[in-house]
Write a structure and sequence with these properties.
By secondary structure, this protein is mostly beta strands. It contains one helix and nine strands. A hairpin with a 2-residue loop joins strand 8 and strand 9.
């Protein structure tokens, strides 16, 4: 990436971050408090606008709704948003889930304890429920899906998903999350 492209990306990121924080008021005196995931019993905390110069450019195409390709957790979904807020409903399926989290099923969402999207690196950890939580580490990319379009790349996330119970890894699986597209 040349210097001009980097400056343009940095300016766009600064504008986006400033715009997303314009409607909220920071009550924190700490420079880095994690944002809580929306949950019925947890109120999200507001964070200060980060200093963009200290972070790599995020891959904005990563954010959205993904389906997990796994025999062990059929129908599992992943929603990642850039501001930890619900994503817009899908035009072709307005009843689809929109709140960020890892969905084991439509009825069972695991809130994120942390999510990181830096460059192509993606990771998350869910909050523990009954001693069980999930961790994921991987990378994002895009691919051409001929049945969808021969010239539109579709995002995906690949990596290692771990199911952990009471601090012990129960299952480790190489997985791929495919981005849901509107056909």
């Amino acid at each position: 990436m040349n210097r001009m492209s980097f400056l343009v990306v940095a300016i766009i990121l600064a504008v986006l971050i400033t715009a997303s924080c314009a409607n909220s008021v920071s009550t924190s005196s700490s420079p880095s408090i994690p944002v809580a995931t929306p949950s019925p019993d947890v109120t999200p905390r507001v964070v200060r606008t980060p200093d963009v110069s200290k972070y790599e450019t995020q891959d904005w195409a990563v954010f959205g709704l993904y389906l997990l390709d796994s025999k062990d957790i059929p129908g599992a979904k992943l929603i990642i948003s850039d501001d930890n807020q619900p994503i817009p409903p899908k035009v072709n399926n307005p009843d689809e889930v929109t709140i960020p989290g890892f969905y084991l099923s439509r009825e069972e969402r695991m809130d994120f304890e942390r999510v990181s999207v830096v460059g192509k690196q993606v990771s998350f950890k869910t909050r523990e429920i009954d001693g069980i939580y999930y961790e994921f580490d991987g990378t994002s990319g895009d691919e051409i899906i001929p049945d969808f379009s021969s010239d539109v790349p579709v995002p995906f996330i690949m990596g290692t998903l771990r199911k952990i119970e009471n601090g012990k890894v129960l299952k480790t699986e190489k997985v791929k999350f495919g981005h849901v597209v509107i056909a």
